[in-house]
Fold this sequence. Notes:
globular; binds 5-amino-3-(furan-2-yl)-1H-1,2,4-triazole-1-carboxamide; 5-stranded antiparallel sheet
Amino acid sequence: MMITAEVSKRIQDLRQQLNTYSHQYYVLDEPSVPDAEYDRLYRELESIEKEFPDSVTADSPTQKVGAPPLASFTQITHERPMLSLENAMNETELVDFERKVRDRLKTEIDASVAIEYACEPKLDGLAVSILYENGQLVQAATRGDGATGENITLNVRTIKNVPLVLRGTDYPARLEVRGEIYIPKAGFEKLNEDARSNDGKVFANPRNAAAGSLRQLDSRITAKRPLELCAYSIGVVSEEYALPNKHEEILQCLKQWGLKINNDMAVVQGIQACVDYFAEMGRKRDSLDYDIDGIVFKINDLAIQQTLGFVARAPRWAIAAKFPAQEEITLLEGVDFQVGRTGALTPVARLKPVHVAGVIVSNATLHNMDEIARLGVKIGDAVIIRRAGDVIPQVVSVVIDRRPENATDIVMPTECPVCGSNVERIATEAVARCSGGLYCGAQRKEAIKHFSSRKALDIDGLGDKLVEQLVDAELINSFDDLFHLNLEEVAALDRMAEKSAKNLLASLETAKNTTLGRFLYALGIREVGVTTAQNLADYFGFLERIQQADEATLLAVPDVGEIVAKHILAFFKEEHNQIIIEQLKKVGLSWPEAEPASAEDSAGLPLAGKVYVITGTLSEISRDDAKQFLQQLGGKVTGSVSAKTDCLVAGEKAGSKLTKAEALGIDILDEAGFIKLLQLHQVEGF
Ligand code: 9MJ
């Protein structure tokens, strides 16, 4: 079919709009439209391109999904070699670096003039070269040995923040962008979490994950990995192009042309300021979104860089100062099994204490028995552990060569290490559980922590440590014991003054007046989260009706599927749970009970009969408030999208619920649309 000028124009507009939105989202970190709007435009472009296949160009935003697999990578010779960096292992070596620079530049820089440095966090990924010709991405290569690398063009094209077309018009006809491709911390955690639950490949660290993702012959796999590019220099540039005089200005050009540069970089005067920057970033290291292994200091003035030149394969005008390593070797001395609220037993590695990136580590998680099998780890092994940021330290791998003869297998205990009850593993689950329920001290502690938590009974002043003390001192064995505590007992506990003891007793009194939803959530029924608990409360209105409900009735409640229904039935069938509920009522826990709002009650309300789900991040309004407003207008709010859902309110970064809603053809409201809805119905404050 011939393409009309009108369609052609629409294609161009859509591509430009999508590129702009991607740039705002992935490069500037400033999303300007909800994901749903982006997706709508993307789908429109996709469908036009499907109708007019000849209109598809290599730089279309739809072409970032990967291509059929290659048989092998070809080699690319870098027009200009890609350099490595000299390392400084401590402050003295950094100061020495400047002294050597000054010695070489004696005739050019007066000793009284400070040298200016660009300080850049050193990302731990893979160095790449990306070539743009007339603004179009034409080639990408790994650094390789610095002289030749592998052609990874198809893979790099799939990376979300790598523009297929440069922005603006004032870029050189030929431009080689150099930078690091890496996986941010959150993306790495999610990648491994997904791999653990789907038997996929678990990566030891973000660097390996980035390397493994980039070196895929099938770029459609690369497209699914959370890779990012951070540009930090240029290689070849058309001769006629007049470049600025400072490294920092080149980075600003790259930014204008649509490439991400590091926002945490700084320009400072003199090596002492570099030392200070290093110390400050060292303090910030754990809280950054991405892993760094040091700081790169580069002389900012390009003329000075030129004068200094290179030695071997590293420039004389730059140096990398290294941070302490995030991975260390230590010994696995034993494995303990920790028991959680639902009885799940988690194996925890007891390690010979070792310093990792400034912190002494003596425990690491081993997740579950499948993970132990995957690692092939035994007690007595030398293991590599990794600590990055606030994430719990992980056992990354075993140093098999160092396995002692007396290394022993790790076995799941058959009895709970805390209470001695049987440990059971359901064939379909990765976890094994203690069958002791609230008889088990560990489960009791966790259950009481949950019972008193903010979204449950919200008992002010009853923190985790205090719960542990109370259980250990056998002052509380079950929920109702909390309400029998007396002042002397509480005040006698460690770190408890009389005033805080009084406050605790007062909050316990206050917490007795609760709601049915909170009470149900506080009971800790498996798979019953805040939303499901509230839905049960709204649907039944009375606790007794929930206790007596059969499976079919439970399934009618929004959000309740077969698994949840089974857990609810099993919970209320247990005699000791019935006793706990009776005891709680006896000590005075109460909540307003009322006939559930029937369709008739809300009939007059504007959203009567409509079922909403809220997902993603809302910026103007909290999710709790959003829910209340919808309910106020007669709507029902549930936690998961199904055919019963009428509308999904999708904030930023909405994930699988949005995908599902789209697949089911359910109405989707972004935040702006949601606020319009509230305005339309004259909700106060909007
Ligand atoms: C990293 N890895 O973040 C350089 N790097 O410059 C930065 N690496 C580099 N610069 C010249 N920020 C060679 C390598």
